[in-house]
Amino acid sequence: MNASVVRQFYALMKPRVIQLIVFCALIGMVLAVPGLPSREDVRIALIACFGIWLVAGAAAAFNCLVEKGIDAKMRRTAWRPTAKGELSDWQTLLFSAVLCTAGSWLLYAWVNPLTMWLTLATFVGYAVIYTVILKPLTPQNIVIGGASGAMPPVLGWAALRGEVGPEALILFLIIFLWTPPHFWALALYRVEDYRKSGLPMLPVTHGNEFTRLQILLYTIVLFAACLMPFAYGMSSWLYLAAALVLSAGFTWYGFRLWREYSDALARKTFRFSLIHLSVLFAALLVDHYI
């Protein structure tokens, strides 16, 4: 197998997306352990991160397989190996199966069964329920399917605690509410791509103005959710300050987008949403050790 083929398989895993998934899972692990982690905690966390990375990569590869025809019609995804026909269906399916099996075994044998089952359920939720059923069926695909994307902190918490606590569910709620405005901002300036693909994304089915209103409303609700870690006692004033600034920024972008649309502003909103979630969770991480 030459380097080019390896890169193609690696691309199937959507590495940038997986980085954020593993990072959010790691936050759940860190917050699950009071104070500094022990060597055993670190060992379990490393194995859990690798196992989650493998299963998430499997889900991404399966998504590429199912959506290869759609990806080929969209500029944003036409480069993917499955869309270009560089990897066959059986190669992609086998790759996904191997990753999922290896990751699930690692989690079951070296972390705990609960984490394995939750991770496997997340795989099914994203690869099957979202990709195969919801995405081509309803404009609420992102909302319902967002539950799978919100699972990483829960997986991380379960890996270190062997249970799912309310703190993990708060983190789940934040990502769940963050997902729709994040993806709808992308869909707004990529609307022609989605229209061409035939996917019933909200800007295609309900129009630009309605989607912009939904983005604004979700950022407002998300603002409140981002304050919950402080209200519940998971964090201190450091996190609260970061949450207020970041959430105010996201809401401001949502408000501007609602008032006056442009593709450039939609792009900025999408990019800021990535900053919002990454820095918010980083603030939780720093706050935990101060």
From TrEMBL:
<feature type="transmembrane region" description="Helical">
    <location>
        <begin position="210"/>
        <end position="231"/>
    </location>
</feature>
<dbReference type="Pfam" id="PF01040">
    <property type="entry name" value="UbiA"/>
</dbReference>
<dbReference type="InterPro" id="IPR030470">
    <property type="entry name" value="UbiA_prenylTrfase_CS"/>
</dbReference>
<comment type="similarity">
    <text>Belongs to the UbiA prenyltransferase family. Protoheme IX farnesyltransferase subfamily.</text>
</comment>
<keyword id="KW-0808">Transferase</keyword>
<dbReference type="GO" id="GO:0048034">
    <property type="term" value="P:heme O biosynthetic process"/>
</dbReference>
<dbReference type="GO" id="GO:0005886">
    <property type="term" value="C:plasma membrane"/>
</dbReference>
<feature type="transmembrane region" description="Helical">
    <location>
        <begin position="42"/>
        <end position="66"/>
    </location>
</feature>
<dbReference type="InterPro" id="IPR006369">
    <property type="entry name" value="Protohaem_IX_farnesylTrfase"/>
</dbReference>
<comment type="function">
    <text>Converts heme B (protoheme IX) to heme O by substitution of the vinyl group on carbon 2 of heme B porphyrin ring with a hydroxyethyl farnesyl side group.</text>
</comment>
<dbReference type="InterPro" id="IPR000537">
    <property type="entry name" value="UbiA_prenyltransferase"/>
</dbReference>
<dbReference type="InterPro" id="IPR044878">
    <property type="entry name" value="UbiA_sf"/>
</dbReference>
<dbReference type="GO" id="GO:0008495">
    <property type="term" value="F:protoheme IX farnesyltransferase activity"/>
</dbReference>
<feature type="transmembrane region" description="Helical">
    <location>
        <begin position="141"/>
        <end position="162"/>
    </location>
</feature>
<keyword id="KW-0812">Transmembrane</keyword>
<keyword id="KW-1133">Transmembrane helix</keyword>
<feature type="transmembrane region" description="Helical">
    <location>
        <begin position="237"/>
        <end position="258"/>
    </location>
</feature>
<keyword id="KW-0997">Cell inner membrane</keyword>
<keyword id="KW-0350">Heme biosynthesis</keyword>
<feature type="transmembrane region" description="Helical">
    <location>
        <begin position="168"/>
        <end position="189"/>
    </location>
</feature>
<protein>
    <recommendedName>
        <fullName>Protoheme IX farnesyltransferase</fullName>
        <ecNumber>2.5.1.141</ecNumber>
    </recommendedName>
</protein>
<comment type="pathway">
    <text>Porphyrin-containing compound metabolism; heme O biosynthesis; heme O from protoheme: step 1/1.</text>
</comment>
<keyword id="KW-0472">Membrane</keyword>
<feature type="transmembrane region" description="Helical">
    <location>
        <begin position="270"/>
        <end position="289"/>
    </location>
</feature>
<feature type="transmembrane region" description="Helical">
    <location>
        <begin position="114"/>
        <end position="134"/>
    </location>
</feature>
<keyword id="KW-1003">Cell membrane</keyword>
<feature type="transmembrane region" description="Helical">
    <location>
        <begin position="87"/>
        <end position="108"/>
    </location>
</feature>
